[in-house]
TrEMBL record:
Cited NCBIfam families: maiA
One GO location term (cellular component): cytoplasm
Keyword Isomerase: yes
All copies of domain GST C-terminal, residue ranges: 89-215
Keyword Cell membrane part of the UniProt annotation: no
SUPFAM superfamilies: GST C-terminal domain-like (SSF47616), Thioredoxin-like (SSF52833)
GO terms under biological process: glutathione metabolic process; L-phenylalanine catabolic process
Keywords: Isomerase, Plasmid
Principal EC category: isomerase
Protein name: Maleylacetoacetate isomerase
Gene Ontology molecular-function annotations: glutathione transferase activity; maleylacetoacetate isomerase activity
Pfam families the UniProt entry points to: GST_N (PF02798)
Gene3D superfamilies: 1.20.1050.10, Glutaredoxin
Gene: maiA
């Protein structure tokens, strides 16, 4: 049976990675349509009709077209019972949102493909410029995130003892940090939480390597 839920994503997109984890955690069946960012498929009319920003992910679910990964995750939290993606109390939700936004709104946009491509065009050594740029802003962001975890509310995970939306942002960011050779030794709490998550089936199934193989098989 073909799922009515469709995720338009790119295997290495952090935002898409977040939504894949959420769908897996909630056991929502979906099929993937790959949008190749390197081939600029996100700028083609068909995708712009889905999302005028020309970004991934786009999720077709419940007869609606949803964009922006955190807004999608919050929608899933609000429309599916007992997801655990956001805590039940207002202060808990505020903290999980703050942790999530620290990555998704402060680190991710600066390190996005369009920004980094522009930086590379300004340099005589594009690869070195990209590596330096990614390293600086990932380190700066993770430095702050590690300090944000130094709170009594931090438990086995970022907030108490189960994964929330914060982990859905953290795990893709740690993946990116490793990809760009960032030394993670200064972030023991964040790294330990991410590694714990990576062993959970919902996170493992959403990993970019798995997503890339799925896209290749679908093609």
């Amino acid at each position: 049976m073909v799922s009515d839920t469709v995720l338009f994503d790119y295997w290495r997109s952090s935002a898409s990675y977040r939504v894949r984890i959420a769908l897996n955690m909630l056991a929502i069946p979906y099929r993937t349509v790959a949008i190749d960012l390197l081939a600029t498929e996100h700028r083609q009319p068909a995708h712009l009709a889905r999302n005028p920003q020309g970004l991934v992910p786009v999720l077709l679910i419940d007869g609606e077209t949803l964009t922006q990964s955190l807004a999608i995750i919050e929608y899933l939290s609000e429309t599916r019972p007992n997801t655990g993606l956001l805590p039940p109390d207002a202060l808990g939700r505020q903290r999980v949102r703050a942790l999530s936004y620290a990555i998704a709104m402060d680190i991710h946009p600066i390190c996005n493909l369009s920004v980094v491509s522009h930086i590379m065009q300004q340099s005589d050594d594009p690869d070195a410029a990209r590596l330096a740029w990614m390293g600086k802003f990932i380190r700066d962001g993770l430095n702050a995130f590690e300090l944000m975890l130094d709170r009594p509310e931090t438990g086995e995970f970022c907030h108490k003892d189960q994964p929330t939306m914060a982990e859905l942002c953290l795990v893709p960011q740690i993946y990116n940090a490793r990809r760009w050779s960032v030394d993670l030794s200064a972030y023991p709490r964040a790294t330990a939480i991410a590694e714990k998550c990576e062993r959970l089936p919902a996170f493992a199934a959403a990993h970019p390597d798995r997503a890339a193989r799925s896209s290749s098989a679908a093609g």
